Amino acid sequence: MKFVVDGMLGKLTRWLRLAGQNVVYLGDLEVSTETEDKALIRLAEKEDRILLTRDLELHRKAIRCRIKSIYVENEDIAKQLAEISKQIDETIHIDLWNSRCPLCNGRLDSVGKLAVKNEVPQKTFKKHERFWKCTKCNKIYWAGSHWENIAKTSERYERLMEDPSC
Ligand SMILES: [Zn+2]
User: Fold this and answer.
1) 159 C-alpha to center of ligand 1: Å?
2) Which of 53, 85, 113, 130 could form a disulfide with 6, with the two C-beta atoms 3.0–4.6 Å apart?
């Protein structure tokens, strides 16, 4: 499953990438505001990507052009993930062993601890055993303090998938 995401969904983009999805974010493309909609639709068509948007007009336009599009109604990230999951009929699960870089969409590779010794803060190096490196931009990731927030959102997402009224 591949996605192209409008400029209002930066946080969702990072989440989907962490969950291993291939996501192009409009904010990363160099297009002028007037041609944004066209660029999104063209890319979705060319690369067979599903458009995710908070813009109802754009969503309707995409559908008219026979582009697969999901109109994202919620602002809350866990609810957004649940919305999309239901539409694509796939669970969205974050697993660093199967992740993409939230910043550039590159694949993450697991790297040996010693390989990152000089690239991460000493405290981090001592505290963590597992590291991942982006194959495209070389940024290094580990399950640091932000991981708790990710886990909390994941739990909320799981609950929403079980009971949509939550
Ligand atoms: Zn990267």
Assistant:
1) 30
2) 53
